[in-house]
Amino acid sequence: MHRRSFLSTGLLLPTGVALAATTTKPSPPNTSLRVSLKADAIGVSGSPTEMLEGAIKHGYDALSVPAQWLEGMTAKERQGFAARARSNDISWGANGLPIEFRRSEQQFRADLGALPQHAANLRSIGVTRIGTWIMPCHESLTYRDNFDQHASRLRDAARILREEGIRLGLEYIGTRSLRHSQRFAFISTGRELRQLIDAIGEENVGVILDSFHWYTSGESVEDLKQWSNEEIVAVDVNDANPKLSREDQADTARELPGASGVIDLNGFLGFLHERKYEGPVRAEPFSATLNGMDNDLAMAATYAAVAGSIERAIKG
After folding, report:
1. Would you state the pLDDT for residue 9?
2. Angstrom distance (rounded) from CA 151 to CA 216
3. Distance (Å, rounded) from C-alpha 139 to C-alpha 144?
4. Which structural domains are found in the chain, ordered by start?
5. 8 Å CB contact between 52 and 81
6. pLDDT at residue 22, rounded to an integer
7. Which pLDDT value is given to residue 287?
8. I need a surface site. Which of 36, 128, 171, 172 has the fewest CB within 10 A?
9. SS3 state of residue 111
10. pLDDT band at residue 178, thresholds of 50, 70 and 90?
11. pLDDT at 122 over 70
């Protein structure tokens, strides 16, 4: 189930990104934050090997690996893939949880049955993080009923992942338009997500922090301080549409980080740097313009935007 049913029609490029994307790659920021390539989020496609080579070529520190990438690989091929990444200091990001837990019990149980093999495949190459997002509304379940269903189902998934040493990150969605698109509103802030994580009660469950949803939920740097380094599984960094108010932002119409200057990325990324967060930071602008670029240009532009935003945050 994809919450992005359509893509934005335009993309702003941060100052210097267009030039950086066509010349030499920027120097990596001096930080524990690792710039991660999440290919599907920027419209880049290809074989797992092509994505890994692209990440190496453009200076990325990490690569998100969907569980489906590994299904067709032999054990030897997975070992070679992991060795190539290690030899180029590429760690693994956090891709999507490969189960549908938002719909029927029958579908959830069927997907859950396949999760142990997915988890074992991911762990065989060294993946230790995976994530999913929380739909901030439901057409028929009240907040309490939806909360209980999420806690039960995600607990089951987390326990399977724990057996393979994999952490599960949960992302709250702050956009008001999506929250009110169905009858019953649901989790849309970090404080509410904290309650769900506590109810799940598994030590390997944490948060995915997204600057866009941090902004649209009306949160501040103070709100980020509730999360320890150990609880942060992954980070998404995006900017907001400068033509829309905070209340009117759409989940599917974002910008590359630093493009519009609407979101306080210095505060957001500066907090993570000070927290000494050691994990993937990736962009998810969901832009038709970025999707229309060839793979090399899209990967280069995205790396430059994310790395540049981190560097500016570190310098203050």
Report:
1. 36
2. 24
3. 13
4. 17-315 (3.20.20.150)
5. yes
6. 44
7. 79
8. 128
9. helix
10. very high
11. yes
